[in-house]
């Protein structure tokens, strides 16, 4: 949608009061609002907003919002300034609504409250926004197909046909073949029939579809052993442990449950029944972990795809779980075979529930982080915790890296992470053989940040390294766990 800058400037000045302008920017362009400074004149703020809207292809959205604020002035200036008629629908929306068969199928699923398809839509749209680097739209709530189509009307046809649609088709084919059979074929057929009209190259679409299928297939190959360990309050030096097998498909599908793993010490031989709240020694706890892995080995084809995530309370973050033996007396460590990640069990407790929104927001930035070193706060092991919490309030500060080995004080560092919603932390437990801790950690903090666990795994395999990594993905928690 083309529209002259001078036209938009005139429209804003005549249609909006200063209060209306500030309210509009605060509600719908928060990233720009936060850049406003005290004493800044209105004209400068308007220019900053227009610059942002042009860069992020948000001019149609801006015009619609102005029309909503003052439709009378908008209509008066419409012919004079050659403004588009509002509300308008993009060609994609018109074509989707005219394609009765496709839309009827999609709407039928949505009307039946098919949570699986709804989750697919949300995930694909978020992936799309991450790739196009559109921060302001990431927090917008998307409920159904209508919401997504409405959002897409501000996008170029090329972006929709080569970024969103092939991504959706690929995602459905990998994660939801049941839905894919009913919808994906129709969606694909409609797309191919309309590519000529929108001047989309067929080979580019096919290449995009192939690429997204490969990406989602690689992602779906990961399986996770989720282990929760907590202290038994009745018996010192005894622990309670539970384990589940899951993958990304299960985590996004409300109709599927993670597989609860058996505990050889529990005396229970019933599938999907967790071990009772019983205490185990550290030796028994390690053996149970090994037994969990053996159970998984008969359930999946490629055990090397297994990632182990330990949910530990803050008091146990000093445990070197990556150095636990795969089997007793083998001297083969878990870290040599599997990616090991530490998760924060205490973060799920009620007192940190108010900080969940910050945690989710920071994780969005983790997914698209392009300069990890600058987005990790460098700290000392025994720093002032209040100061650390304050420094981590910056939503772009995604993690903590420690300048020296951490041997004590884990609870304080953990509390700072929880209260600030910070999902990541990395430290060495011993001084490196050469260099210093910060240099070694910086070598791991490369683009993209999502590959950090894999880089830590490779580093552990290559040399005798004692690396601890907290990697708290808010979208993958203990199965059926709810904040109470």
From TrEMBL:
All copies of the vWA-MoxR associated protein C-terminal domain together span 278-474
**vWA-MoxR associated protein middle region domain segment(s):** 119-229
Q: Which Pfam families match?
A: VMAP-C, VMAP-M1
The protein's name in its UniProt record = Uncharacterized protein
Q: Which InterPro entries match?
A: VMAP-M1, VMAP_C
């Amino acid at each position: 949608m083309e529209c002259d800058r001078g036209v938009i400037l005139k429209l804003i000045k005549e249609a909006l009061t200063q209060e209306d302008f500030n309210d509009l920017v605060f509600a719908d362009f928060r990233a720009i609002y936060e850049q406003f400074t005290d004493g800044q004149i209105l004209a400068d703020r308007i220019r900053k907003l227009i610059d942002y809207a042009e860069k992020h292809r948000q001019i149609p959205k801006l015009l619609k919002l102005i029309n909503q604020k003052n439709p009378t002035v908008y209509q008066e200036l419409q012919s004079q300034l050659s403004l588009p008629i509002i509300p308008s629908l993009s060609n994609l929306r018109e074509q989707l609504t005219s394609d009765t068969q496709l839309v009827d199928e999609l709407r039928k699923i949505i009307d039946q409250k098919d949570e699986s398809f709804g989750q697919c839509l949300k995930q694909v749209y978020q992936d799309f926004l991450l790739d196009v680097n559109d921060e302001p739209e990431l927090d917008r709530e998307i409920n159904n197909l209508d919401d997504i189509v409405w959002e897409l009307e501000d996008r170029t046809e090329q972006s929709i046909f080569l970024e969103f649609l092939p991504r959706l088709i690929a995602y459905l084919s990998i994660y939801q073949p049941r839905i894919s059979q009913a919808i994906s074929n129709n969606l694909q057929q409609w797309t191919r029939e309309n590519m000529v009209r929108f001047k989309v190259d067929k080979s580019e679409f096919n290449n995009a579809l192939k690429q997204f299928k490969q990406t989602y297939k690689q992602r779906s190959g990961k399986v996770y052993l989720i282990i929760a360990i907590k202290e038994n309050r009745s018996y010192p030096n005894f622990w309670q442990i539970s384990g589940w097998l899951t993958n990304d498909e299960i985590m996004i599908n409300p109709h599927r449950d993670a597989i609860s793993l058996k505990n050889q010490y529990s005396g229970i031989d019933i599938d999907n029944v967790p071990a009772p709240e019983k205490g185990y020694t550290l030796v028994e706890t390690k053996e149970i972990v090994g037994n969990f892995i053996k159970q998984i080995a008969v359930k999946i084809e490629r055990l090397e795809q297994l990632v182990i995530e330990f949910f530990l309370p803050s008091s146990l973050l000093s445990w070197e779980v990556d150095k636990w033996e795969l089997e007793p007396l083998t001297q083969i460590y878990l870290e040599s075979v599997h990616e090991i990640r530490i998760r924060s069990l205490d973060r799920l407790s009620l007192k940190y529930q108010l900080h969940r929104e910050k945690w989710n927001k920071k994780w969005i930035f983790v997914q698209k982080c392009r300069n990890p070193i600058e987005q990790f706060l460098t700290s000392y092991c025994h720093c002032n915790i209040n100061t650390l919490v304050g420094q981590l309030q910056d939503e772009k500060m995604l993690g903590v890296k420690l300048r020296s080995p951490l041997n004590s004080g884990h609870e304080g560092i953990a509390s700072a992470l929880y209260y600030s919603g910070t999902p990541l932390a990395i430290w060495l437990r011993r001084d490196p053989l050469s260099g210093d801790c910060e240099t070694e950690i910086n070598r791991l903090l490369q683009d993209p940040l999502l590959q950090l666990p894999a880089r830590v795994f490779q580093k552990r395999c290559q040399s005798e390294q004692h690396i601890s990594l907290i990697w708290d993905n808010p979208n993958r928690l203990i199965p059926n766990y709810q904040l109470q």
